[in-house]
Amino acid sequence: AQKITQTQPGMFVQEKEAVTLDCTYDTSDPSYGLFWYKQPSSGEMIFLIYQGSYDQQNATEGRYSLNFQKARKSANLVISASQLGDSAMYFCAMREPLKSAGNNRKLIWGLGTSLAVNP
Amino acid sequence: ETGVTQTPRHLVMGMTNKKSLKCEQHLGHNAMYWYKQSAKKPLELMFVYSLEERVENNSVPSRFSPECPNSSHLFLHLHTLQPEDSALYLCASSQVMTSGGKADTQYFGPGTRLTVL
Questions:
Q1: CB contacts < 8 Å between A and B, how many?
Q2: Strand ranges (DSSP E) for A7-112?
Q3: Residue A101's pLDDT band (boundaries 50, 70, 90)?
Q4: Considering only residues 42 to 71 of chain A, which have any Cβ-Cβ distance to chain B shorter than 8 Å?
Q5: Cβ distance of A111 and B105 shorter than 8 Å
Q6: Residue among B43, B98, B100 minimizing CB distance to A33
Q7: CA B88, B94, B98, B100 torsion: positive or negative?
Q8: Most buried by CB count within 10 Å: which residue of A77, A84, B20, B62?
Q9: A112 vs A1, more confident
């Protein structure tokens, strides 16, 4: 069964430093998508970055990059030059593979990592 | 308004009350979702509407009743809730593509924090 594991319940990082948030996944399907979301204390789930299983390069979006290691089934989020506003919960999610045309596919979620950025 | 909006942001209700949560998406998407987020649990998918038709109902108790009158609006009607239903309820939308990819990303609203007394 598909599963997402985030082993770090909480992380601390000094402002302006880089931090890596871990995510491992389990699936037997060759086609899948991986997402990272940020959830500040206000509650909104904010999409950060996407990695497709067939993408040749690691995804990058501004200060966010994804260290995608397919053989190890890991998709770690790297935040460079941390800012105080990066303090939030971070969730890794995997989209189920397509089963039939037009079928909505579920996202399978991890439990999240709480990141605190210290000034 | 842009993105996905939800009202109210906070709701306190008694177990005998009837209330509704509202979600509106301004992204032109064709699918909308209701999620429940409780402490120390993964996000739980409750309902999915695709092209205004319910395509997913994850064994949610009947005290939760969804409604999707058009592709931009989604409601969650609540009645005779239990204290364990207290949670953050998140609405999301996406443009479902058979090819998948980044275009099928779900975008979320700010959520409704529900407390059942």
A1: 65
A2: 10-14, 19-21, 24-26, 33-39, 46-52, 60-61, 64-69, 74-79, 88-95, 107-109
A3: very low
A4: 42-47, 50, 52
A5: no
A6: B100
A7: negative
A8: A77
A9: A112
